[in-house]
Amino acid sequence: MELRHLRYFLALAAELHFGRAARRLSISQPPLTVAIQQLEAHVGAPLFLRNSRGVQLTAAGQALVPAAQAALDQAEQALHAARDAASGQAGRLSVGFAGTMLYRGLPQMLRRFQAQYPRLQFSLSELSSSAQVVELQHARLDAGFAHVSHAPAGLAQLLVSSQPFVACAPASHRLARRRALPLAALAGEPLALVSRTVSPDYHARIVGACQAAGFNPQPLHELQHWLSVVSLVAQGLAVALVPAALQQAGLSGAAFVPVQDPHGALPRYETRCLWNPARDQPALGLFLDQVRQVAEAG
Predict the structure, then answer these.
(1) Rounded CA gap, 192 and 272, in Å?
(2) DSSP H or E segment with residue 193
(3) Counting CB atoms within 10 angstroms of each CB, which of 60, 118, 259, 267 has the fewest?
(4) pTM score > 0.85 for this model?
C-alpha cells in the first residue's frame, strides 16, 4: 500500500463519485478505479458499495476514513520534520561545557538561540575539558566549550574568550586587602588548583608560573571544579589562582585580587568552542553562527 492509495481513497470518500474524485485528484478515472481496487485487496474487504444509486462507503470504508487522514497527516508532519532538520530549523543539539562558561555568557547565548530557533532542543552536559574532547571524538556531543590551548586532532575550534587569572584569597586574609600583588606573594600559602587529571594543561602551566616566580606551591590542594576551588578558599583553607570570570560567582568569603605579571608567566584562560566538522548536523552550523557573533562581540 502506498500513500497515494490513501489520498485516492479520501478523495472518493469525500465525493462519492469516481468522475468528480478523479477531477479533484487531477487524474483520469481508470487509475483511480485501479488504486481503489488495490487498496480493497490490501484491506481484504470492500470499502465502497457501487450500484445504480451511486457510490457509498461500507462499514470498513467509514472506519478507514479517520485512520487514513491521520496517516496522511503524520506523513506530512514527518516530511516537514525532515525538511526542518535538513535546514537546521529543528532537531536536537548536545552541547558540553566547562562550569566557568556559566559566568562567560553561555546561558545568555543559549536563550537567544532558542528564542530564534524554538523547535531546536538542547541537551547540556557539564564536563571537564578533557572529557568533552573524548565525547566529541566519539560523536556523543555536537559541540563543546572547553578550556584548551588548541583543538585536538580531528576537531575544529573557535576561540570564544580569553581572560586573565586572578588571585583568590579568603576575605579575611592579609592578601585580600591588596589592590594588586605579584605572583611571588603567594609563596608559602597552601594553593588550591583544579586537578591535573581534569585540566592537565592549565595545572602544569600555573605550577610552572609559580616556579618561575621562585616558589614551588606546597601544599597543593587539587579539586575537580574551579567553583570548588573558590569554595575552598572562601572557607579559609587556601589561596588560589582562578579565571577572572569566577568573580561573578558571588561566593561570600572569597576576595579577588589582580596579579602583577609583567613577564607574562601566567597563561590566559582560553575558552574554545570545539566541534567535529565531519558530522552532518545542519543545526550545528546555525549554532556556530551564534557563537561567532558572541566571540566577535568580545
Answers:
(1) 24
(2) strand 191-194
(3) 118
(4) no
Q: Is the dihedral of CA 117, 120, 125, 131 positive or negative?
A: negative
Q: For the CA atoms of 195, 199, 183, 188, what is the dihedral angle to 10 degrees? A: 10
Q: Which three cell numbers stand for residue 262?
A: 609583567
Closest CA relative to residue 284, chosen from 146, 139, 153, 147: 139
Question: Closest Cα partner for 31 from 2, 61, 58?
Answer: 2
- At position 23, the amino acid (one-letter code) is R
57 grid coordinates: 462507503
List pLDDT tens digits, range 175-200.
999 999 999 999 999 999 998 888 88
Place of cell 572562601: 234
Taking the CB of residue 19, how many other CB atoms lie within 10 A of it? 11
User: Do 182 and 261 belong together in one domain?
Assistant: yes
Helix (H), strand (E) at residue 220: strand 220-223
Are residues 194 and 245 both part of a single domain? yes
Residue 60's nearest CA partner among 77, 43, 75 is 43
* DSSP at 154: T
Q: What is the pLDDT of residues 150-162, one digit of tens each?
A: 888 899 999 998 8
Residue 197 class from Cβ within 10 Å (0-12 exposed, 13-18 middle, 19+ buried)?
A: exposed
69 contacts: CB under 8 Å, gap ≥ 6: 10
CB 271 within 8 A of CB 298: no
Domain count, the chain: 3
Report the candidate in 141, 163, 40, 154 with the shortest Cα–Cα distance to residue 94: 141
CATH number of domain containing 263: 3.40.190.10
Which CATH number fits the domain that encloses residue 27? Answer: 1.10.10.10
